[in-house]
Amino acid sequence: YAEGNECKPCAEGHVSSEGGIECTACSAGKYAEGNECKQCAAGHVSPEGTASCTACSAGKYAESNECKQCAEGHVSSEGGIECTACSAGKYAEGNECKQCAAGHVSPEGTASCIACSAGKYAESNECKQCAEGHVS
Question: What pTM value is reported for the model?
Answer without folding.
Answer: 0.74
